Amino acid sequence: MQRGSGTYRRAVTSTHTGRWVRLDGTTNTRDLGGLTTTDGGCTAAGRVLRSDNLQTLSERDVRRLVQEIGLREVIDLRTTAEILLEGRSPLRDVPEVTHRHFTLLPERGHHTDVFAVEEDEPLDLPEGWVESLLPRQSAPHDRGEPPAVRSYLGYLADRADAVVGALRALAQPGTGATVVHCAAGKDRTGVVVALALSVAGVSHDDIVQDYAMTADVIEALVAKLAASPTYAEDMDQRDIASHTPRADTMDRVLTLLGERFGGPAGWLEAHGFGPEDQARLRARLRD
Known about the structure:
Number of helices: 13
CATH superfamily: Protein tyrosine phosphatase superfamily
Shape: globular
Mean pLDDT: 86
Strand order of the largest sheet: 1-2-5-3-4
Helix content: 40-55%
Radius of gyration: 18 Å
Strand content: 5-15%
Number of strands: 5
Order of helices and strands: EEHEHEHHHEHHHHHHHH
Structural class: alpha/beta
Largest sheet: 5 strands, mixed
Number of domains: 1
CATH architecture: Alpha-Beta Complex
CATH class: Alpha Beta
């Protein structure tokens, strides 16, 4: 196994295909259950899902998520602009489901409750807010890293409060399932999920492998996003290969967290998500 060198090689290939949750309105939904941990345990099925956006869920999807899977919480990592442009998810009309918002990108304006904002008429949005939809970000000392690595490190540097907030919400005890999502379910969702899986005790290699699974559905995912005016321009500007998640990317992010903080747990503790928080999150994710 080679890490952090620009070429990531796995000794064993396994995509855990049984973890996919096939829905009419999403292309990248999967269960985080069924992953082995370094101490011989396993992550629990039906507790946490990761997904692309949920605006196009069908009535059948909603029934399956709420009645069969037991969904009770949505953690939305998109910007206020994305949420307002895309419109309400059908899950917003389900009283049993709580929605929480933690944007991982810098935003214009000062909205603290996007789900309240979207009900206001007229919308009080600052001029130029649409241009802040998908900003690229990087710290000066990370400019030598590949673009995706820079973006992921940017989430951690610029929106550590939101990352920790999302994980703290995810760690709350409950009997139902939670879905964590952004637009594609690969970048912002990938970083939050990687930290959560690390806390649960999933190995570096399996975290990388989970992240890279989105490559299996990337063509359908890009087509879905390209059909939305919100994301069409961003999809059209780059080819499929540039949208495809590379194992090298998450491998490098985890390697850098190891070098700088002793690992994801060290980064979390340095940003206020200490041992008690991590214990609650571990209990939520594991059998």
